Amino acid sequence: MPGGRGWRGEVPPEVIDEYRERQRELAARVQFVPLGAAPRLIAAVDVHLRGEVGIAAVVQMRYPELEVVEELSASTPVDFPYIPGLLSFREAPACLVAVRQLRAPPDLLLIDGQGRAHPRRFGLACHIGVELDRPAIGVAKSILTGRYGELGEARGSTAELVSRGEVVGMAVRSRDGVTPLFISVGNRITLPEAVEWTLRCCTRYRLPEPSRLAHRLAKRLAAEPPAS
Hints:
Layout: H1 13-27, E1 41-50, E2 53-62, E3 67-77, H2 88-100, E4 108-111, H3 124-132, E5 136-140, E6 147-148, E7 158-163, E8 166-172, E9 181-187, H4 191-200, H5 209-223
Parallel strand pairs: 1-4, 4-5
Antiparallel strand pairs: 1-2, 2-3, 5-9, 6-7, 7-8, 8-9
Helix pairs in contact: 2-3
């Protein structure tokens, strides 16, 4: 995937347009296909920034036990500027390094970010899912694009997330009465399956358990002082 060019300061509009066009082109590679078999290894990846370094944590768990099989991290320089809608070019490099270090490839990836629920239908979960050619789900805590209607308060309640007349994801209540998650396809999975497997991985918390642990690890590592 394309990365940054070490910009500092303002990025030329034509360069922004170039990367947006790349997203549109890459979005065509996202596959909406059933999983086929129930995933046995489910991994989640989250990334936090510490200055100009991206720190990604990945936690792989065995399903249905939801036991941790492996957890690790990776750090990479961040050389892509902050541009809304293009954040995957900042965050994907560290995530890809982390996931590729796993001893066994995951059957399913949960990504802290958007999948198809993105203005150009190519969020971080799509970026990672396409690059690794693995099933991936975008598990976002907030909306980037789209609106949803009435949503029940009970766990498992859903409402379609619609952007420009297209269903791009689902608002999902992962626990009774909590703020919903926004689930969308990253790659090689259907939207109903993405909702189903997100809920299967939610236990006592709002976030799926692999995502919760990856978020906690990434946050802790980012807060540590850099090695001298």
